C-alpha cells in the first residue's frame, strides 16, 4: 500500500473517531438536557420564575380537601410568600420583635433551620401589612432575604450566613413590601421612598444591583420623583434584548440590567402600584388600580351604600348622626368589613380627633343638615380614589417617553388593586377583590369574560397557573380553581377555613399555601 494511501486512511479514521465522539456528545446532551432543564425550574422568587406566576410542567392537585393536607407546619406570622429550591421551602416571619428566616423540608414540612436577623427597630406598617412582607429569592447555592426594617441577608441552604447588608428603611405609608429578584450574578432591589421631594430631582428613591455572591454594589440608579411603592421588578426578555422592568408611582420604567441605565418609561398609572408586570406574546402588561383600590373608571355606588348600611342600627334605611360608631368612615373597599384597616378613609387613632373627623365627614355629606344620610346624599358625590385604573399593553423597542408610541391598548375596568395578572396562551387573568375574575385577550385588550367566582371578600394573593388551570385564593381562605380558556369554568372550590394573604407556591406535584399561622402542602 502506498504511503499516500495509508495517510488517507489515517485521516479518515481520525475523522470517523471525531464524528463518533461528536455524536456521542450530542446523544448525551439529548438525554441530559431535558433533565437539567426540568431541574432548573424552581419556584424561586415571588410568583415563581421571573415573577410570572406560572411554571411549565408543574401539576399540583386540581382538587384539595381542606383537612387533608400532606403536612401542616406552624409558622411565625408574616405576609411573605414561600419559595422553593428542589426539596426545600424558604420563607420569613416575625417572632416578637425579631425577624426570622426559615427553611422547611418540602416533603415532610419539618423545620430544618431558623435564623434570626440582627436586632433592629421594626418599621411601622399598616395593620394589613407585616414587617415580614417581602418574599425571599433563592438559587442553587443561596437564599436572599430582604427585611425593610434591616436590609439584605444571604444564607446558604444550610442556614449559614454568607453576607449581610444593612439598608436604611425606606419611608412608606403602608410599610415595605417589595421583594428582591435575581438576574445572572446580580441581586436587584427597588428602594423607592416616600421621603423623595416632590418636584425635585434630589432622589432618595433608587434601584440597586449587588453582586449576589459578595453583596458588594454593582450599580445604583436614582429614581427622581418616585415615592414608595409595593411592586416587585421583573426581567423582560424580548426580540430586541433584555430589560429590567420597574413599576413606580405614575410610571413604569425599563432599565439596562447590566448598568442600571434608564431606557424608557410609560406614564398613565396611579399613585399606588402593587402588582408585578408580566410579559407574553412579545408584549409587556402592566396593571395598577386607581388610588384607593378602585378597578373601574365608572363607579357603581350601590356596593358602597350597602356597606354603609352596616351602621344603620335601627334599620330605617338612613345613617343618623347618632349611629356613628368607632368604625364609622366612608368606604374605599366595600367588599371588606367595617373595622378592617383597608375598609375606608383612614382616621386618627386618637378618640377625640377621630370623633371630630367622623363628624366633619358626616357634615360634608349631610347636604340638607337634617342629621341623616340618605342614599341619594351619599351617592351624589362619590369621589373614591384618584387617577384612573389602567392595564396597559406595551411593545418592545422604545427609548425615552414611549407612552404615545409603544402602548398598544389600555383597559380601565376590572383592574386588581393587589393581585398581579398572569399570562397564559394569549390571555391575561386578573382577580379583583369581591371575587371577580376577568379574562382578557392580549392582542386586542378585549374582555373575553368577567365572572364572579362565588368566593367574595378581599384578594391579596396573586393568581398562579399550572396544568392549564388558574389557582385563586381569597383572604378568607377560599381556593378556586378555574380552567384556562375562553369559557369560564370552575373546576374546583374549597374553603380552607383560615385566612390567606400570601401567593401560593408550587413544585412538580404540590401546592403550598401560607395561612396566617402555618404553611400547608397539598399533593
Structure description:
The protein has 523 residues and is mainly beta. The protein has two domains: 49-297 and 385-522, 7 Propeller (Methylamine Dehydrogenase, Chain H), CATH 2.130.10; 302-379, Recoverin, domain 1 (Orthogonal Bundle), CATH 1.10.238.10. Helices cover 12% and strands 33% of the residues. The protein contains four helices and 35 strands. It has helices at residues 3-40, 302-308, 351-365, 375-379; strands at 71-74, 83-85, 88-95, 98-105, 111-116, 137-138, 142-147, 151-156, 161-166, 181-183, 186-191, 206-211, 217-222, 234-238, 241-247, 251-255, 262-267, 278-280, 283-288, 319-320, 372-373, 390-395, 400-401, 407-411, 422-424, 427-432, 436-441, 447-452, 464-466, 469-473, 478-483, 490-495, 505-506, 511-514, 518-522. Strands 14-15-16-17-23 form a five-stranded mixed beta sheet, with no helix packed on it. A hairpin with a 3-residue loop joins strand 15 and strand 16 (251-255). The longest helix has 38 residues, at 3-40. The radius of gyration is 26 Å and the shape is globular. The protein starts with a helix and ends with a strand. The model is unreliable at 1-39 (pLDDT under 50).
Main features:
523 residues, mainly beta, Methylamine Dehydrogenase, Chain H, Recoverin, domain 1, 2 domains, 5-stranded mixed beta sheet, 4 helices, disordered N terminus
Amino acid at each position: 500500500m502506498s504511503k499516500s494511501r495509508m495517510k488517507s486512511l489515517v485521516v479518515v479514521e481520525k475523522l470517523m473517531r471525531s464524528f463518533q465522539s461528536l455524536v456521542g456528545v450530542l446523544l448525551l446532551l439529548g438525554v441530559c438536557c431535558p433533565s437539567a432543564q426540568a431541574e432548573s425550574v424552581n419556584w424561586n422568587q415571588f410568583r415563581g420564575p421571573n415573577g410570572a406566576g406560572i411554571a411549565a410542567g408543574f401539576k399540583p392537585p386540581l382538587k384539595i380537601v381542606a383537612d387533608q393536607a400532606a403536612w401542616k407546619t406552624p409558622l411565625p406570622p408574616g405576609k411573605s410568600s414561600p419559595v422553593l429550591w428542589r426539596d426545600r421551602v424558604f420563607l420569613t416571619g416575625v417572632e416578637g420583635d425579631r425577624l426570622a428566616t426559615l427553611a422547611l423540608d418540602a416533603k415532610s414540612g419539618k423545620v430544618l433551620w431558623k435564623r434570626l436577623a440582627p436586632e433592629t427597630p421594626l418599621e411601622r406598617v399598616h395593620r394589613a401589612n407585616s414587617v415580614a412582607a417581602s418574599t425571599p429569592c433563592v438559587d442553587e447555592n443561596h437564599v436572599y432575604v430582604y427585611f425593610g426594617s434591616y436590609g439584605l441577608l444571604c444564607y446558604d441552604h444550610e442556614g449559614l450566613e454568607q453576607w449581610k447588608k444593612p439598608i436604611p428603611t425606606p419611608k412608606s405609608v403602608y410599610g415595605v413590601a417589595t421583594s428582591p429578584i435575581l438576574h445572572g450574578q446580580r441581586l436587584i432591589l427597588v428602594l423607592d421612598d416616600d421621603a423623595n421631594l416632590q418636584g425635585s430631582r434630589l432622589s432618595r428613591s433608587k434601584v440597586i444591583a449587588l453582586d449576589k455572591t459578595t453583596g458588594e454594589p454593582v450599580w445604583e440608579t436614582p429614581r427622581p420623583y418616585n415615592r414608595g411603592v409595593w411592586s416587585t421588578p421583573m426581567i423582560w426578555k424580548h426580540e430586541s434584548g433584555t430589560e429590567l422592568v420597574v413599576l413606580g408611582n405614575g410610571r413604569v420604567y425599563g432599565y439596562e440590567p447590566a448598568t442600571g441605565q434608564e431606557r424608557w418609561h410609560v406614564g398613565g398609572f396611579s399613585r399606588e402600584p402593587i402588582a408585578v408586570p408580566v410579559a407574553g406574546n412579545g408584549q409587556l402588561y402592566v396593571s395598577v388600580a386607581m388610588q384607593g383600590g378602585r378597578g373601574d373608571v365608572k363607579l357603581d355606588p350601590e356596593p358602597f351604600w350597602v356597606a354603609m348600611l352596616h351602621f344603620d342600627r335601627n334599620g330605617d334605611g338612613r345613617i343618623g348622626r347618632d349611629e356613628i360608631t368607632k368604625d364609622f368612615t366612608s368606604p374605599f373597599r366595600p367588599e371588606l368589613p367595617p373595622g378592617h384597616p383597608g375598609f375606608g378613609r383612614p382616621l386618627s387613632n386618637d378618640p377625640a380627633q377621630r370623633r371630630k373627623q367622623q363628624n366633619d365627614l358626616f357634615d360634608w355629606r349631610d347636604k340638607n343638615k337634617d342629621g341623616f344620610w340618605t342614599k341619594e346624599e351619599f351617592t351624589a358625590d362619590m369621589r373614591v380614589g384618584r387617577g384612573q385604573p389602567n392595564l396597559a399593553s406595551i411593545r418592545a423597542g422604545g427609548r425615552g417617553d414611549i407612552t404615545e408610541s409603544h402602548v398598544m391598548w389600555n383597559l380601565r375596568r376590572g383592574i386588581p388593586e393587589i393581585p398581579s395578572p398572569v399570562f397564559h396562551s394569549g390571555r391575561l387573568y386578573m382577580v379583583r377583590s369581591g371575587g371577580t375574575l376577568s379574562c382578557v385577550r392580549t392582542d386586542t385588550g378585549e374582555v373575553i369574560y368577567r365572572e364572579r367566582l362565588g368566593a367574595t371578600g378581599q384578594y391579596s394573593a396573586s393568581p398562579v397557573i399550572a396544568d392549564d388551570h388558574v389557582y385563586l385564593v381569597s383572604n378568607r381562605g377560599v381556593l378556586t380553581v378555574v380552567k384556562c380558556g375562553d369559557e369560564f369554568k370552575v373546576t374546583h372550590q374549597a374553603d380552607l377555613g383560615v385566612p390567606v394573604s400570601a401567593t401560593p407556591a408550587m413544585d412538580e406535584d404540590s401546592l403550598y399555601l401560607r395561612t396566617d399561622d402555618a404553611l400547608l402542602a397539598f399533593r
